[in-house]
């Protein structure tokens, strides 16, 4: 297979591949490694992706070889190579002590060069993984102070805050992501989700605050849907939130969106979700690429509400 | 001045092999050589230190807030605005906050500026030296030769361009002198270099000239050597402060979606 074919093969797989997908990718290792090295950016991108896949499936020998070739080309002191080496070390660590060792390494590197962003990010991930959540958050805020225009950092920080139920902070972080990537519809949907979870975390259901949060959630979901037609998560959210808003427990006095509109939105979402479910079950061309787990969740929601 | 139709000059065919060919070959070879020499001489851009990155990225943060303000609710925008305006005005993000009162530093004394200038100088030398040498070579050996006839007619204006080094008033414009052939090669070999060396080559001097025009375009420096970051921060703070119009994109989203179906 040629380089372009292999690259396309990798591109078809989502960012969170299933184990079988990862295995399929990792089994491409021999054909990738047997290609002559042309020193094009594409080839090194391919190497990087393959490294991650092989580490996912436990093919450490191939991973070692890939890493070696990358290091030979870019040098061991290249920031990105250091981070990849770190990933390799983390993956091959078998016990707590070895992970601590890797962490210590990261800290050493960062002491010498605080601008080594890839390694800083590895360190934060590892801290979080080692359940040092507050340390991870403070390290991430330092990184953001250094570079507040990095959407990835903000999104990660939002995730960390969300995990410890600090919803206003998580919302703040996601808004920052929107300032950098104003059309990121997945971030809009995520904001809707966090508003929804925040609304549900309030005990006094039916209070003004809950209604406000639910309506905010609905609006974010709608924006996601506006930016991306056929966005499953967006419509799922619209359906879910409108369902909650129509719930009799919620007092109408606090509502700003009239009930008939909520009703209409609910039916719009139902129609769209129905389309997606039937379309992807029949394997229609326009509905390829939906996550089967997500489609199953939609089906469940539709069955529960009818 | 009457054009002599079908003007004929008897040329020794050796002119073709011993002047036209050598000049072209030499020009291509020097281009390739210059490309590799430039690559060798160019020092890798020095990574910025943490404080410089912080200074630049926080400035961009302000810009982002201003351009995409409508993406976030008014309350979120106002709190961010207040924070950033205050921070920008007090110079929290400046690399060295004390420098704001001093007159702008001489760009020559700034080590980073020196680096860029050194690189520019190297690039210039790579252009000037071979050009001078080749032009001297052509002037010494081939000056005054008419080496080829263009297969198409041209207007009189091209005379000075195509027949430099040959002082013949009545000669048809289609005749090209050796010195002019050199100039044509100098400016016209770009596709050849792209073919040999790839798109991003340093052999072509027109590209290099464009780069010299705006040296900041492809370096990491956001603030040029002469600019004062403190002043830019103050200006940005002012820009943020005067922003009164805020239209949240989520306003009216319900009706927009309903109108769509």
From TrEMBL, chain A:
Signal sequence segment:
none
Q: Where in the cell is it found?
A: Endoplasmic reticulum membrane
Q: Which PROSITE patterns match?
A: TPR (PS50005)
Q: Which domain of life is it from?
A: Eukaryota
Q: Give start and end of each EMC2 TPR-like domain.
A: 101-193
The answer to whether keyword Endoplasmic reticulum applies is yes
Q: Which UniProt keywords apply?
A: Endoplasmic reticulum, Membrane, Repeat, TPR repeat
In the bilayer, the protein is annotated as: Peripheral membrane protein
Q: One cellular component GO annotation, for this chain's record?
A: EMC complex
UniProt xrefs under Pfam families? TPR_EMC2 (PF22890)
Start and end residues of the TPR repeats are: 151-184
**Of which family is this protein a member?**
Belongs to the EMC2 family.
Query: Which purpose does this protein serve, as stated in its record?
Result: Part of the endoplasmic reticulum membrane protein complex (EMC) that enables the energy-independent insertion into endoplasmic reticulum membranes of newly synthesized membrane proteins.
Q: How does it assemble?
A: Component of the ER membrane protein complex (EMC).
Write down what this protein is called. ER membrane protein complex subunit 2
- Which species is the source of this protein? Arthrobotrys oligospora (strain ATCC 24927 / CBS 115.81 / DSM 1491)
TrEMBL record, chain B:
A single GO BP term for this record reads: protein insertion into ER membrane by stop-transfer membrane-anchor sequence
Where is this gene product found? Membrane
Entries under SMART domains matching the protein:
DUF106
Q: Which GO terms describe its cellular component?
A: EMC complex
* Membrane topology listed for this record: Multi-pass membrane protein
| InterPro entries membership | EMC3, EMC3/TMCO1
Designated name of the protein: ER membrane protein complex subunit 3
Indicate yes or no for the key word Zinc: no
**Domain of life of the source:** Eukaryota
Q: Which organism is it from?
A: Arthrobotrys oligospora (strain ATCC 24927 / CBS 115.81 / DSM 1491)
User: What's this chain's function?
Assistant: The EMC seems to be required for efficient folding of proteins in the endoplasmic reticulum (ER).
Keyword annotations for this protein?
Membrane, Transmembrane, Transmembrane helix
Family of the protein in this entry: Belongs to the EMC3 family.
């Amino acid at each position: 297979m040629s380089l372009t074919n292999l690259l396309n093969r990798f591109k078809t797989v989502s960012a969170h591949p299933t184990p079988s997908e990862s295995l399929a990718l990792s089994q491409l290792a021999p054909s990738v490694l047997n290609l002559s090295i042309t020193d094009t950016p594409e080839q090194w991108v391919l190497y990087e992706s393959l490294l991650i896949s092989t580490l996912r499936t436990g093919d450490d020998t191939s991973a070692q070889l890939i890493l070696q070739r990358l290091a030979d080309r870019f040098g061991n002191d290249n920031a990105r190579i250091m981070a990849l080496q770190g990933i390799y070390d983390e993956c091959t660590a078998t016990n707590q002590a070895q992970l601590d060792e890797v962490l210590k390494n990261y800290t050493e590197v960062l002491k010498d060069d605080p601008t080594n962003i890839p390694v800083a990010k590895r360190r934060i991930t590892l801290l979080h993984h080692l359940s040092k959540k507050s340390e991870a958050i403070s390290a991430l805020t330092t990184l953001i102070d250094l570079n507040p225009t990095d959407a990835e950092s903000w999104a990660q920080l939002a995730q960390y805050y969300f995990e410890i139920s600090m919803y206003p902070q998580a919302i703040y972080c996601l808004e920052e992501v929107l300032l950098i990537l104003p059309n990121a519809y997945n971030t809009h949907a995520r904001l809707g989700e966090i508003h929804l979870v925040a609304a549900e975390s309030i005990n006094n259901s039916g209070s003004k605050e809950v209604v406000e949060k639910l309506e905010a959630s609905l609006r974010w979901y709608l924006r996601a849907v506006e930016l991306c037609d056929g966005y499953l998560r967006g419509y799922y959210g619209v359906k879910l939130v409108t369902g909650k808003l129509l719930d009799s427990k919620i007092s109408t006095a606090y509502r700003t969106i009239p009930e008939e509109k909520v009703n209409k939105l609910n039916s719009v979402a139902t129609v769209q979700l129905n389309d997606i479910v039937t379309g992807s079950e029949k394997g229609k061309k326009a509905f390829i690429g939906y996550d089967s787990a997500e489609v199953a969740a939609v089906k469940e929601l539709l069955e529960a509400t009818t | 001045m009457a054009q002599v139709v079908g003007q004929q000059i008897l040329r020794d065919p050796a002119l073709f092999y011993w002047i036209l060919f050598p000049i072209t070959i030499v020009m291509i070879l020097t281009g390739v050589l210059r490309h590799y020499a430039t690559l060798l001489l160019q020092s890798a851009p020095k990574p910025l230190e943490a404080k410089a990155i912080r200074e630049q990225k926080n400035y961009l943060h302000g810009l982002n807030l201003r351009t995409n303000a409508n993406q976030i609710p008014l309350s979120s925008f106002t709190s961010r605005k207040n924070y950033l305006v205050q921070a920008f005005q007090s110079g929290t993000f400046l690399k060295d906050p004390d420098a704001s009162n001093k007159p702008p530093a001489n760009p020559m004394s700034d080590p980073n500026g020196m680096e860029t200038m050194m690189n520019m100088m190297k690039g210039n030398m790579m252009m000037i030296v071979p050009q001078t040498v080749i032009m001297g070579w052509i002037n010494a050996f081939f000056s005054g030769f008419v080496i080829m006839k263009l297969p198409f007619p041209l207007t009189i204006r091209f005379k000075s361009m195509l027949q430099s080094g040959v002082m013949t008033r009545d000669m048809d414009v289609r005749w090209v002198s050796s010195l002019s052939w050199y100039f044509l090669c100098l400016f016209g070999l770009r596709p050849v270099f792209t073919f040999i060396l790839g798109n991003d080559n340093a052999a072509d001097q027109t590209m290099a000239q464009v780069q010299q025009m705006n040296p900041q375009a492809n370096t990491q420096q956001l603030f040029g050597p002469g600019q004062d970051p403190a002043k830019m921060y103050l200006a940005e703070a002012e820009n943020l402060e005067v922003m009164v119009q805020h239209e949240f994109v989520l306003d009216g989203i319900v009706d927009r979606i309903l109108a769509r179906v």
